[in-house]
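Shift notes (night). Ran UTP23 sensor motif region domain-containing protein while the centrifuge was going.
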Amino acid sequence: MVMFSVYRCDHEKRKSAIACITEVIGEKNTEHFFVATQDAELRKKFQQIPGVPLVYALRNALFLERPSAFQQESAKAAEEERSRMTELELKMLKLKKKKVANDEGRNSSETEEEQILETLIPRTDVKMTRIDKADKAQFKRKRAKGPNPLSCKKKKKQGNTDTASQKVHLKCTLPANNHLGNEKSSSVSGRRW
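Came back to this:
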């Protein structure tokens, strides 16, 4: 079962619900909020903002609205942007191509390459559009658990194999005429019953 938390806003002055929700969502929905509303106009407004899932109720069920065409286009554009090479990667690729072309007949020093890479790295800024370090999901690794103790076979005890000689045999003596009213008692190994 999925539990959703409710955002609490701290406005000094009173605002309408629509104004408050639009302020919380903002232009890019950086906090990845879901919006649950019955207001059709508000849903149309949030369909123009990429990354805003819309939930509405109909009878006894909650429905997640399909992403609008604008949201689908922005998702495709963001995916294409992430799949492209950054400027740093492009420069490193060109440098490697030059090195391979030059190294076919002779060896070049690695210190020159390291110096070039050091000059390239601090100047370039990697642009991440919608994914920041705070936005990335942090997965908790599950550690390995031990075996189920009920499914494990118990170890055999290595003891004396002469268990038959250790048993004490008990003798039972029953009187033959006990059913005739004789009050002889039957005994088993010296005990009365």
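The mean pLDDT is 75. The chain has six helices and six strands.
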